[in-house]
Amino acid sequence: MKTVYRALVTGSSRGIGLAVAKNLLERGISVFGIARTTPVDLIKHAKYEHFNIDLADLPRLERALKTPQIIEKYRDIDVAFLNAGVFGPSPRTANRIDLQDFLSVLHTNTVSNKLLLDSIIEHASPSRILVSSSISGMRQRQGMAAYAVSKAALIALIKTYALENKNIFFANLGLCNVRTQLAEIILQPSEGLTELLLLKERATQKDYLASPADRADQMISIMMGAHRDRIASGDFIEIRQLFNPRGISQS
């Protein structure tokens, strides 16, 4: 397995993305982070560089990815963790989701990743790209239309890129239940949304929600070669199938 010297991490200012960036830095790997806000825990680290941008702002992102300054920052990237994502408005039925909110989720979770992938593939030479997909794209629940649609499209997008770029290994992972701000939004009180109420009850069980640090460690171990014989490039798989097969029934 090729040694990793430099990584791109989106969503590096909080949650799983922040945990991934911290873990990589602790291993001595340089990190180029992209997020809406600056991670105060990382910004002074000698091996961390940061770019502030809202990935929902597609015109600005597209322009930025074409600038020499950004191209230079990720020219030598070995591995990318495309982790940034949003849920959108609190859980509600599809007909009550405002169109602009719906599009913002699609822009952040799906279209921004297409722009990032195109730029990375053109200007860098990554051997591995991990994308934070979601089982919501395969198994839909009430109240999660924008998120589910964006993740379904993302799963299809990554599978297509894997078919077209055989030289890159794509880990198309569902990260399952992690104690993050996104999970807190999903688990808000959802009157009438039975499936989410049941999910909220399960979330109270011990060890049902993984910590961002534990999930980040698993993600990085996959990028370092763990379970490679069980992951087909571009095919969606839930991370619990690799590290906790019996836990998969809890989804």
Whole-number mean pLDDT: 86
Succession of helices and strands: EHEEHHEHEHEHHHEH
Low-pLDDT segments, ≥5 res = 247-251
Strand order of the largest sheet: 3-2-1-4-5-6-7
Residue fraction in strands: 5-15%
Describe the structure.
The chain is 41% helix and 14% strand. It has a seven-stranded parallel β-sheet with strand order 3-2-1-4-5-6-7, sandwiched between helices. The chain has helices at 15-26, 58-64, 68-74, 99-123, 145-164, 181-186, 194-202, 212-223, 240-243, and strands at residues 6-10, 30-35, 48-52, 79-82, 128-133, 169-174, 236-238. It is built from nine helices and seven strands, in the order E-H-E-E-H-H-E-H-E-H-E-H-H-H-E-H. Helix 1 crosses helix 8. With 251 residues, the chain is of the alpha/beta class.
Keywords summarizing the entry:
251 residues, alpha/beta, 7-stranded parallel β-sheet, disordered C terminus
SSE topology sketch:
Blueprint: E1 6-10, H1 15-26, E2 30-35, E3 48-52, H2 58-64, H3 68-74, E4 79-82, H4 99-123, E5 128-133, H5 145-164, E6 169-174, H6 181-186, H7 194-202, H8 212-223, E7 236-238, H9 240-243
Parallel strand pairs: 1-2, 1-4, 2-3, 4-5, 5-6, 6-7
Put the structure in a nutshell.
This protein is of the alpha/beta class and 251 residues long. The protein is built from nine helices and seven strands, in the order E-H-E-E-H-H-E-H-E-H-E-H-H-H-E-H.
